[in-house]
Design brief:
There is one protein chain. With about 290 residues, the protein is of the alpha+beta class. Among the domains are: about 80 residues; about 120 residues, OmpA-like domain (60s Ribosomal Protein L30, Chain: A). The protein is built from seven helices and six strands. Helix 6 links the parallel strand 2 and strand 3. Helix 5 crosses helix 6.
């Protein structure tokens, strides 16, 4: 049947063999062309490639036919992991540098905070010390003011006396001899002066007799009273102030003048205002320095 078809087509046996050989050679060529990828123009390849990439990754194809090799070699793995390790190393270095910079900034910040806190503490201590000094100064000023007021009160009261007691010591005529009644009067008054400060005794001596005779007689009476108080009761002389009036008429309580008929010494106990302010004793007390008040 094949021969009948060849006869109809006018082909000889030699021509048919040539056709068969041509077909056998054409099949592998067509298969190879089908497997080859379509080539792209150089310009298009250059445009498609990223311009910023600096690391060229090696081709991931291995084998004679261009397929992936299921059994990867160490060199093949190393070529692909080296770029990744380089990038990781670079990132570790950047992280280490950033951590160091952060630590430096934190250290400087902590130092600044500590310095500011120390300055604030020092300022607070200075303010507290200044406040304490101001309070102490205020207390000292108040104390000084009180002392000044006290001193002013003492100075103002030095010459201010007020009467406490009156005693009239009578004599027989112009004789300067103290009677027993006169001594008892002086003893009673001196008993009240024991330990007392800030007082004086004012004495007015009267005696009958005109002119200088009466004055001299009254002087002897005043001296007799002063002598008795000094010798018997240790009354300081500077606390007694006497004046001899002779026969000068004395004013009575009703305002009329009485004629001097007998000798007498009128004693008036005067107390200083400082002694009245003394709280230790109603009659005053000795000062802390041992000196007597006026």
């Amino acid at each position: 049947m094949m021969r009948m078809q060849m006869r109809k087509m006018g082909l000889t046996t030699g021509q048919v063999g040539a056709l068969v050989l041509s077909a056998a050679l054409a099949v592998p060529m067509m298969a190879q062309q089908a497997q080859q990828p379509t080539s792209t123009p150089p310009a298009a390849s250059a445009a498609a490639a990223p311009s910023t990439s600096t690391t060229q990754m090696p081709s991931d194809k291995e084998g004679f036919w261009g397929h992936l090799n299921p059994f990867a070699r160490k060199s093949w793995v190393k070529k692909r992991t080296d770029p990744i390790n380089d990038r990781l190393t670079e990132l570790d270095q950047v992280n280490a540098k950033n951590a160091k910079d952060i630590a430096d900034v934190d250290a400087r910040a902590q130092a600044g905070i500590k310095k500011a806190q120390d300055a604030a503490d020092a300022a607070n201590q200075s303010a507290t010390a200044a406040g304490t000094q101001a309070q102490n100064a205020s207390q000292i000023a108040q104390s000084a003011t009180g002392q000044v007021s006290q001193i002013n009160g003492k100075v103002n009261g030095l010459d201010q006396y007020h009467p406490i007691q009156d005693v009239d010591v009578a004599f027989h005529g112009s004789s300067p001899v103290l009677t027993e009644d006169a001594k008892q009067q002086l003893d009673a008054m001196a008993a009240k002066l024991a330990g007392r400060q800030g007082y004086i005794l004012e004495m007015e001596a009267h005696a009958p007799g005109a002119g200088s005779v009466g004055i001299q007689s009254s002087e002897r009476l005043a001296e007799a009273v002063k002598r008795y108080l000094v010798t018997e009761h240790q009354i300081p002389v500077y606390r007694m102030h006497a004046v001899a009036l002779g026969n000068a008429q004395m004013a009575s309580n009703d305002g009329t003048s009485a004629r001097v008929r007998t000798g007498s010494v009128h004693i008036q106990l005067m107390e200083n205002s400082l002694a009245a302010q003394d709280a230790a004793s109603p009659h005053g007390a000795a000062s802390s320095t041992g000196a007597e008040q006026p």
